[in-house]
Amino acid sequence: MEGKHVTLVKEGKIGIIRFNKPKANTYNYEMMQEFNQAVEAVRFDEGIRVAVLTSSVQNFFSAGADIEMLRASDPDYKAMFCLFCQEALSRMESTPKVFISAINGHCVGGGLEIALATDVRFMIDDPKLQIGLPEVTLGVLPGTGGTQRLPRLINKSMALDMMITGRRLSPQEALRVGLVNYLAPAESFESEWRKYAEALANGPVRAIGLIKRSVQEGLEAPISQGLALERELQNRLFVTKDAKEGLSAFAEKRKPVFAGN
């Protein structure tokens, strides 16, 4: 898939979604439509087992929504735009495949909201880079899921502090509070996230997808319902070839060879 600002390239079992809207990957409706199409393509391509979001624009993962577009649009359009963006990110979040953010530049506002909807976040370990939700400095709130996903990821007080002050974090601070999972220097950054993605793509991807589903859906339900979902999904996995291979490999003291089914 090749859009004007978003591309999806399949490399082996990995789908790489790249943002390319100079100067800062500020997104408008057109760009989010393309992103939504890329997510749908990942969903329906059985050959893509893991997806990675990253940027082709130097120094920026994404600076969020296009401010000039928002200034020029009326309140009803803004409301529908926010709704569409929320739906696109929720679609990615609910897809039973792992999405990884490879944050190779500044990641602020809606850019971080995109990253928050992914499952794992890598970031370049560069003290010049910033990550945060500074929407309050514009007199608005993070409206693409930030007020809901950030407190669920890090503690509520820290999330609230970040959002009401608009404070941006360095990569090291983001790692410390759990906002990103992994840091790597620029020279080895791509090799690090590729190694991680390839390990997942060559693993028991059906189990990985159902683990994601159990976590995503179970956390929003009472624990009794979450446990029931966990049992149901586990019973589905018990009959798969990968489960049989994993158990046999353990008993035979060898490395399992997973087929993804």
Automatic annotation (TrEMBL):
<dbReference type="GO" id="GO:0016836">
    <property type="term" value="F:hydro-lyase activity"/>
</dbReference>
<dbReference type="InterPro" id="IPR018376">
    <property type="entry name" value="Enoyl-CoA_hyd/isom_CS"/>
</dbReference>
<dbReference type="GO" id="GO:0016853">
    <property type="term" value="F:isomerase activity"/>
</dbReference>
<dbReference type="Pfam" id="PF00378">
    <property type="entry name" value="ECH_1"/>
</dbReference>
<dbReference type="InterPro" id="IPR029045">
    <property type="entry name" value="ClpP/crotonase-like_dom_sf"/>
</dbReference>
<protein>
    <submittedName>
        <fullName>Enoyl-CoA hydratase/isomerase</fullName>
    </submittedName>
</protein>
<keyword id="KW-0413">Isomerase</keyword>
<dbReference type="GO" id="GO:0006635">
    <property type="term" value="P:fatty acid beta-oxidation"/>
</dbReference>
<dbReference type="InterPro" id="IPR014748">
    <property type="entry name" value="Enoyl-CoA_hydra_C"/>
</dbReference>
<keyword id="KW-0456">Lyase</keyword>
<dbReference type="InterPro" id="IPR001753">
    <property type="entry name" value="Enoyl-CoA_hydra/iso"/>
</dbReference>
<comment type="similarity">
    <text>Belongs to the enoyl-CoA hydratase/isomerase family.</text>
</comment>
